[in-house]
Amino acid sequence: MKRLLCLLLLSVWPLSSQAGPALQGDVIADLNALQAQLQDGELSSVVERATAQAERLAPGNQADQWASALYQQLAAGALTRQDQHAEAADRLAIARGLNGVDGAQAARWLREEASLRRAAGQRDQAIELFSEWLANQRDSDATWQLTRLLAQQERWEEAADRLEQALNETPELSEAQQALALAVYRNAGQSDQALGWLLDGLAAQSDAADWRQAAGLAQQAGQPGVAAGLWETAWQLGKLTEQQDFWLLIQLHLAGGTPARAAEHLEQALDEGEVVRDESNLRLLASAWQQAKDVEKALKAWQALAMHTQAAADWRVYGQLAYAWGEDGQAKQAFAQASSLGDDEAEQWLASFN
Fold first, then answer.
1. Per-domain boundaries in the chain
2. What is the pTM of this model?
C-alpha cells in the first residue's frame, strides 16, 4: 500500500509536468500547502480542505475542473493513508471523469483506482478497471493482479487467458506466481498445460512437493505412465522416503503400465524385510508379476502365495496360470494340491491330464 501511495503522490506533482489547463497562482499555492500537510500526516485536514475545494471548483471551467481533479487526488492520497481504500477509489473515479483531465492522466488514475478497488475487496469493479487499463497498456504487474482477481472470483477460463499473457510478460516467476499459475491451470481444466509448464522447471534439486505436484497433475491429465515415471525418479533421487510414498509408487507403476517395476520394488522390499511378508503383500506381488506377463516370476510368486495361505482357490489359480503358459508339470502339482484341499473344480482340471 505504501507503493500505491507513492504512485498517487507522484502522479500529481510537479504540476509543471502535468498536461492540463493552466492553474491560478492561489490554487497552486493551496495545492502545495495541502501536499505539505499530507506529507506531514495531517490527513483529516487534507481530506476536509481538498473535498471542499474540489466541490467548489467542479462546476467551473476546464481549469477549475482540472484543479478540482487534483484536489480529489490529494483527498484520495489522504484517505489511502487511513486505509479507506474504497473511499479513495471513489475520489479517483470522480477526478478522472472531470473536464480538463487529459486521457493519459485519466488512464493513470484508472490504474490507481483499480488497485484501490482491489485493496478494498471490490473485486468485480477492480477486474473491470484492470481490464480497461490493459486494453491499451502493457503492464505485467496489472496482468498478474487481474489474473489473481479472476481466480479469486473463480472465473477460471478468463483467468487462464490472462495467465497466458502474464507468463509471456514475466521471464522469471516468484513462488506466489507459480502457485497461482498452477491453481489457475488446474481449476480451468488445463492439466496438460500445467504439467508441461511444471515439468520444464523440474530438476534434481527440486523439492519433494514439486515432484508430488507434477505426478498429481499427470494423473489428472490422464497420463498415469508419466505420473509413475515422475514418482520413480523422485524415489530414486531420495525425495520420497515415507512408507506411504513407497505404496503409492507401487500403485502408480501398476496403473501406469509398468507392473514389472512395481513387482521389482515390492520383491526387494520383501526380501529386505522392509514390508511384512503377509498374504496381502504376497498377493500383490503375484498379481504384479502376472500383469507383467513374466511367466517364471509370476508362477513362483503364485506358488509362494498358495504355500503361505494353503487356500484351495490360490492353488487352483496357480495351476490355471501354469497350464495357460504351458507349464504342465507345475499345473498338475498345483491342481493336485487344490484337489486335496477339497476343490472340486481342480478335480476337473486334473482329469484333463488323463
1. 1-152
2. 0.64
